[in-house]
Amino acid sequence: MVKKLTSKISFLLAISLSALSLSACSNNNSSQSENGASASSASTESISASSADTDSSSSNEDISDNTTSDIVIDDTEAIGIKTVDSNGDYYKDKQVYVQKIDGLSEDFMRGVDISSFLSEIESGVVFKDYEGNDIDSQGFFDLLADSGVNYVRIRVWNDPYDENGNGYGGGNCDIDRAISMGEYATNAGMKVYIDFHYSDFWADPNKQMCPKAWEGMSISEKETTLYDYTKESLEKLKDAGVDVGLVAVGNETDSGMAGVTSNSEKCKLYSAGSKAVREVFPDAYVAVHYSNPQRDYMEIAKMLDDTGVDYDVFATSYYPYWHGTLENLTDTLKNVADTYGKKVMVAETSWAYTLDDGDGSGNTVGKGSNDDSSEYSISVQGQSEVIRNVIKAVADVGDAGIGMFYWEPAWIPVNVYADTTDNASDTLKANSAAWEKYGAGWASSYASVYDPDDAGQYYGGSSWDNQALFDFAGYPLYSLKTFGYVYEGNEVEGMEFEGALTPSGITVSLGEDISLYLPKTVKGEYTGDVRLDLPVEWDDYSNIKEFGEYKLFGTVTDILSDEEDNTSRVIIKITVLPESLLENSDFETGDDSGWLLEGNGPWVDTEDVYRGEYGLHFWSQTAVEFTATQTYTAIHSGNYTASMMIQGGDAGDDQVITITVTNETKGTSVTAETKVTGWLEWTNPTTDVIEADAGDILTVTIYVKGASGAWGTIDDAYLYIE
Ligand SMILES: [Ca+2]
Ligand SMILES: [Ca+2]
User: Which reaction does it catalyse (predicted)?
Assistant: First the structure.
């Protein structure tokens, strides 16, 4: 990482990076940076299956001819390929090992979002029970309840239809369809979470489009209209007897809601929605929902508090491949809960059991896409562990942690598609027709009038079929039963310990307490794709006293074994940064003390830091151009070097980013350049050495020039002597 440092590695502990195999376990930073390619500094995953998720080659065929929608496809051949793993074993037969969660409340919301369900059924999808029998719609909801699910989440769009009544897709989720699904859920004894998007189609961190009928309204008109719409919709649910237990006013509303973008206007709309919920369902929770627990949730919660928004639950999405560690999830939610007296929950999560695509429309998680996290295996067991561990992370908040919802576990292929089969093109044609006619895909071509840039370009099928809790042919996976298993745990036969996975490396500054950064557990691997958090005792590291890169061994204990010899060894990479000669190199004072900031863009903030709590964040609506400068008087003669960590995006082709050390006394300077390439894609520009004598004046200058809208973070800006 800090390339210049290797020259000073202690001989005893010296290692070459190439000799240390860390590839088995990619770290969090790399998995998050997968996401950077998709653009903004907010969490950029469009789980509604946007551009990157969708196979445009298949989705842009002419599929407007509805007459093909009733082609009957023989799934037999495709099923043989797509419903078994590489060993030829059926996914549906895979039992799951589940660690019991002690003390989990019976009331804990163990939910699933089944918003696409009706469109699936209308398209001819048939779900099965664990014995392989076909089940009807009520049977499907009963199966969820029997598996331990006690809550169902349903999204609601205002008017997801074009002027001719053609659905936009994604389940065509209007209020009437929410009522139908809500009735099944209520009949099955489950409660319902209504997820208003306040849009005619997908609302997420990237888009919060105004409903067509609300275009051109002033904010006060929107408040009234949103209140009326919410009240009317909820009254319909109430009249139908749907057991609504929670209502979210907006979906992943990080960047706005219903076409408004300012916090003050957004809060007015939250309040209008909340007022309607209180009137119709006084016992229901009111939730707000944001997308990424790595964001500044404390500032958001403060803003909501300052504005006086009346809500009960601060909800977040948490996708393990995008949204950081479970520890951070728990800590962030606990902070909000403790400080503002709110309940907290995870409104969306999921995990893949295969990297295959089942319907001919590309998936969000696939080969080379969001698949490099090693916390969990891509397997039915991996899904189970995500469900169990996310529930536990929320429950670990305490009484305020009230629930977890799995996103779209039933969004499976209409017909199982495999490009290797003879009927592949017919299958894709039939699927495409169902996406068009019944809304079983993420978007139909009809959505282009409303959402031309995303749906209009990339309309197609399910980007989520491999993250479902049913296989491609409709058989339930045992991962679904995790919702019930968490109370008592579930054993599987013949599970054996295979060893510990190499953990992510850590970075500390010289003089910092390494124990604060060393993980207390590492992942242990067992047969059956099982990965458990196992306690680790690290060897003595008191001899790490200089900067450089080190490896440290630890002893891992297999918690499932009673044998005496139940341990194995593991290695962690430790990068010790030099002691910086600059003041506030890591920005951990929480302000710009020590630095002279000049120009447009930078401020010290908590968002997207490299290390610690703070970094030097930058963003501007207009062109970004600034310098951050600090001067140091050399105490010793020697070779000096400067480096920094930087990430960001949208800086344009003409961006210039440099870090320079100038010896003002001698009139010499050295510069290192870099570019920002995406969210959390950190680079580490490091200058060549520059000579200085004692008493020379050295100036370190960070210079950033980027297009309007450029954003990013600088952290750990160092000057050191070799
Ligand atoms: Ca797919
Ligand atoms: Ca920092």
Answer: The enzyme specifically hydrolyzes (1->4)-beta-D-galactosidic linkages in type I arabinogalactans
Instruction: Judge whether 661 lies within some domain.
Output: yes
Smallest Cα–Cα separation from 598: which of 632, 631, 624, 633? 624
List phi, psi (to 5°) of 508: -130, 165
Do residues 258 and 212 lie in contact, with contact meaning Cβ atoms separated by under 8 Å? no
Q: What is the pLDDT of residue 420?
A: 82
- Point out the ligand nearest to the CA of residue 509: 2
Catalytic, 722? Answer no
Q: Nearest bound ligand to CA 359?
A: 1
In a domain, 128, yes or no: yes
> Buried b / exposed e across 547-564, counting CB within 10 Å, b at 16+?
bbbbebebebbbebeeee
Note the residue count of the chain. Answer: 722
Q: Could you give the count of Cα atoms lying within 13 Å of 234 in the half-sphere of its Cβ?
A: 30
Question: For residue 264, which phi and psi values (nearest 5 degrees)?
Answer: -65, -40
Beta-carbon-side half-sphere exposure of residue 242 (alpha carbons within 13 Å): 32
How far apart (Å, rounded) are the C-alpha atoms in residues 208 and 251? Answer: 9
Residues 611 and 541 grouped into a single domain:
no
Q: Is the dihedral of CA 486, 488, 494, 499 positive or negative?
A: positive
Last residue within a domain, chosen from 549, 577, 605: 577
Tell me how far the alpha carbon of residue 412 lies from the centroid of ligand 1, in angstroms: 8
Residue 252 falls in the annotated catalytic set = yes
The confidence score (pLDDT) of residue 139 equals 98
548, 577, 606 - which closes a domain = 577
Which of 122, 183, 252, 436 is catalytic? The answer is: 252
Per run of 10 residues, the mean pLDDT along the chain (length 722 residues) is 26 27 30 30 37 36 42 53 86 97 98 98 97 97 98 98 98 98 98 98 95 98 98 98 98 96 97 98 98 92 98 98 93 98 98 96 93 90 98 98 98 92 89 97 97 94 98 96 98 93 90 90 95 96 90 95 90 91 93 96 90 91 95 94 94 96 97 93 94 96 96 94 85
Number of Cα atoms under 13 Å in the Cβ half of residue 602: 26
CATH number of the domain at 688, please.
2.60.120.260
Ligand 1 centroid, distance to 202 Cα (angstroms): 18
User: What is the 204 CA–ligand 1 centroid distance (Å)?
Assistant: 20
Active-site residue (options: 34, 45, 183, 348): 348
| DSSP helix/strand/coil, 106 | coil
Rounded distance between C-alpha atoms, residue 399 and residue 517, angstroms: 28
Cα gap 487→478, rounded to integer Å: 15
Which residue reads 């929770």 in tokens?
A: 285
The CATH number linked to 234 is 3.20.20.80
pTM, full prediction: 0.81
pLDDT for 540: 96
Residues 6+ positions from 219 with CB-CB distance below 8 Å: 260, 265, 268
Tell how strand 530-538 and strand 521-526 pair up: antiparallel
HSE at residue 563, side-chain half, CA atoms within 13 A, is 10
